[in-house]
Amino acid sequence: MLRSEFSEALERAGKSENLSRKDLITLLGAGKDESEALFKLADQIRFKYMGNDVHFRGIIEFSNYCTRNCFYCGLRKDNQDLARYRMKEEEIITCAREAARLGCRTIVLQSGEDSFYTAERLAGIVFNLKKELNLAITLSLGERSKKDYALLKEAGADRYLLKQETCAAGLFADLRPGTFLEGRIIRLKWLRELGYQVGSGNMVGLPGQTMETLADDIILMRELEVEMAGIGPFIPNKQTPLGNAPGGTLAMTLKTLAVARLALPCVHLPATTSAASIHPGGRVKALKCGANVVMPNMTPQAYRESYIIYPGKLGVTDTPAQSYSRAVKAVKDAGRNVSEGYGHSLRYNISKIF
Ligand code: SAM
Ligand code: SF4
User: Fold this and answer.
1) Which residue's alpha carbon is at the smallest distance from atom 5 of ligand 2?
2) Nearest-CA neighbor of 263 among 15, 43, 14, 18?
3) How far does residue 141's CA lie from ligand 1's centre (Å)?
4) Does the reported pTM lie above 0.90?
5) Which ligand minimizes its atom distance to the CA of 69?
6) What is the C-alpha to C-alpha distance for residues 314 and 263, in angstroms, rounded to an integer?
7) What's the average pLDDT block by block, 10 residues per block, for the chain (354 residues)?
């Protein structure tokens, strides 16, 4: 049974009309039958705007040191139960070579907020990677100065991923001590001004989150015109202050993903590792609800057990090749193709044409 307001919102989405906040809340509140209709439309819209290709972004988690103390994250500074590591430049480059050999056209360099890697040092790594390998580079290094972001862009970085995590300003400040939503949004604007393809995103199921804040998360990403939206469940980690909080569910994550696809038809949406970590079929299900990206882990096996953001992370004992094959299998199981292109933002492709 579909509520009439639900059918009407879905119809507007099908005609690519701009969805109102009320529409988004209605769609996020989908019941069982409504979810099926929502997922079906999200899959159709994904096909219409983004095709059947799934883009691979190989992620290299090069340092788990972090100066922050986010309440949800296992890498937080005060977590003493984590062996810390930093990869050397040559290790990062070797890892990227392997990712390229396996077939990744994009690598994501991700770390905690680790000042050991100065912008100059990172720029050198980015420059050398771009010189040697035919790869797009996404950075996911957290909050830095505009000058740092500019230097990294000049060195050749293509994209930056900085999730807003939650658009509820009070919750953001509570969960990320010493940082503010405003600062996050300013950075997302800087990144755009500097010419990066910009990714943001949120966690689903954070304590204190409501359907309204989830809708506002999507609206914020629409206003910022982000080109990628990483939407995954919050998974409680016992080594953090939110260890006993209930986690986000796969059902709510899939609904959020599907609604994001309807509201942001041209955005790159990953089937996140966190969705795959809470359910063995999470990746395939996400690919069928609007997702068009996967992020196979390219971190060397030896470091994986120390990049534990949350428990039960998919592929902790895998090699990069095994993670890549696992991602290929999910793509095939979803009846889709592995993309041979970079999966740049559509806006970037258009600006190359004109
Ligand atoms: N330090 C950078 C930052 O915060 O943007 C990048 C690394 S951080 C570990 C990458 C992402 O992990 C965050 O954007 C956050 O959404 C996600 N994350 C952290 N803790 C999580 C948890 N308990 N459950 C799900 N995702 C989590
Ligand atoms: Fe550090 Fe990022 Fe984890 Fe926060 S989410 S503790 S900034 S690694």
Assistant:
1) 73
2) 18
3) 10
4) yes
5) 2
6) 29
7) 93 93 97 96 97 98 98 98 97 98 98 98 98 96 98 98 98 98 98 98 97 97 97 98 97 98 97 96 98 98 96 95 98 97 77 43
